[in-house]
Specification:
The protein has 454 residues and is mainly α. It has helices at 2-12, 15-64, 71-77, 112-115, 123-126, 133-149, 154-158, 162-167, 173-199, 204-231, 235-264, 270-284, 289-297, 315-328, 330-350, 355-367, 371-397, 404-407, 424-451, and strands at residues 80-83, 103-106. The protein contains 19 helices and 2 strands.
């Protein structure tokens, strides 16, 4: 224990070490505070929109909820709110939540043109990414690790103390030195996160999984530092080599992998599905009503025989036309989702050799803020839209009046259950990489100790 205290005093006497740890603690605290504030703004937005939605819906009900009310008008003007509340761990890994919609009002018309209308984002605003705890851990913490550990061996050699250290009895010098620096770095990263988890009452299992991912990722970088420090002889060379590793592993290789995946798996845009659906609906005005109903009855045969009406327009034909448009672009929508899923799958595979990609993917999956979380929200909207359509169809096809009491029976959206999970493959890759590098670096340092090479 006295040796640990002595090592701790050496670290605290180093201005660079103290500054690095203080900076890491400050950045982690700022990132957690920023993440919590952003999630609170999203919750406030949901609450504000919910209140406005209630007033709008009441006005529609008052206007069209007559004893002989037309269900078509009620279905056309009734927008129903869906929302995706921030997961409790989203403050630490915001992921897609800063660029993807988390509030969407839908009605019984075609879903596809509503689902992707809000997908367009400002590319210039999305380019820098988001400053959160995951960003600090993946991109900034390795720099602090480099500052703390680049001269563990080379600094002693340059100071003329290495032979003396190697001649001292007892083992575990390098394990003690690297372990203490790891503990201080992990503490500077994890303490603000733990405070944030307590403030947001985040689930214990998810928080522990995030801390495990952080520990493995920091362990990987300490392994890199130990390996490089055992190879080179000068501290400046070690620092430059480690910075080069950081640039390659966190910036260059992930960018190249992302570009390769994007090139290998081309994908369109959700707005393309929207435009295709709208084009089909617009073309439906020039298509015979019999043809539109025939296509509609393929999947809704229960309403066959009720398609007749007088005049040129009826709401049941209009809503059938929109549903036909949705079904016509279902293949395009599925292909779009499949391409996004394939990209995310290959990104996870890239994480098996790129620790930064693995760590970020793990954190976003645990926090339920990755593309799969957005897919789950879209699926919940689709399920609600299906309930909404099927609620209105009996009124439309049976020409039943839609009264004020019927407005109270309109289905309400049920928020999706959190879908965060633990991606074991990525965690295993981090564990193997960290353990392997620490072991190799420890063996090489042990050889220095065994041969007395200074």
């Amino acid at each position: 224990m006295s040796r640990v205290r002595a090592e701790l005093r050496l670290i605290l006497r180093s201005p660079l070490g103290v500054l690095a740890l203080a900076l890491l603690l400050a950045l982690s605290s700022l990132a957690v505070w920023s993440g919590i504030a952003q999630m609170e703004r999203q919750e406030a937005t949901i609450a504000r929109v919910t209140a406005e939605q209630a007033r709008d819906f009441a006005a529609v009900a008052d206007a069209y909820g007559k004893p002989d009310g037309d269900a078509g008008y009620a279905a056309y003007y009734s927008f129903l709110l869906t929302h995706d509340a921030p997961p409790l761990l989203a403050f630490a890994a915001i992921g897609q939540r800063d660029i993807q919609p988390f509030v969407l009002r839908v009605r019984a018309l075609g879903l596809q043109q509503q689902l992707y209308d809000a997908e367009a984002i400002n590319a210039e605003l999305a380019l820098p990414g988001v400053f959160d705890w995951a960003f600090v851990l993946v991109y900034l913490a390795p720099v602090i690790v480099i500052a703390l550990s680049h001269d563990l061996v080379t600094g002693e050699r340059e100071g003329g103390r290495l032979r003396l250290l190697l001649s001292m009895p007892g083992r575990g010098l390098w394990r003690r030195r690297i372990g203490l620096r790891f503990a201080l770095s992990f503490g500077a990263v994890s303490l603000p996160f733990l405070v944030g988890a307590l403030v947001t009452t985040a689930p214990v299992g998810g928080a522990v999984a995030m801390l495990l991912a952080a520990a493995l990722y920091l362990g990987f970088w300490f392994g890199v530092a130990l390996l490089v420090g055992s190879i080179v002889r000068a501290s400046a060379t070690a620092a430059a080599s480690l910075i080069g590793c950081w640039i390659l592993l966190t910036l260059v290789f992930p960018t190249l992998a992302n570009a390769a995946i994007a090139r290998a798996i081309p994908t369109g845009k959700g707005i393309d599905v929207t435009l295709a659906q709208r084009e089909i609906v617009h073309h439906g005005w020039d298509t015979s009503k019999a043809d539109t109903f025939a296509r509609f009855f393929v999947r809704h045969p229960e309403w066959r025989g009720r398609e007749g009406f007088e005049g040129r327009f009826h709401w049941k034909w209009y809503f059938a036309m929109h549903q036909v448009g949705d079904e016509a672009v279902a293949g395009d929508a599925a292909a779009y989702r499949a391409s996004l899923t394939a990209r995310e799958t290959w990104t996870a595979r890239a994480g098996t050799i790129l620790p930064g990609v693995a760590a970020q993917g793990v954190l976003h999956r645990i926090a339920d803020t990755d593309p799969f979380g957005q897919f789950a929200y879209q699926d919940s909207i689709a399920a609600f839209h299906d309930r909404l359509r099927r609620f209105f169809y009996p009124y439309l096809f049976a020409d039943r009046p839609f009264t004020r009491a019927d407005f109270d029976r309109i289905p309400a959206y049920t928020p999706r259950a959190p879908s965060g999970s633990l991606p074991s493959a990525s965690l295993l890759a981090l564990l193997i990489a960290a353990a392997l590098l620490l072991a190799i670096g420890g063996v090489r340092v042990g050889r220095i100790s065994g041969t007395g090479r200074a």
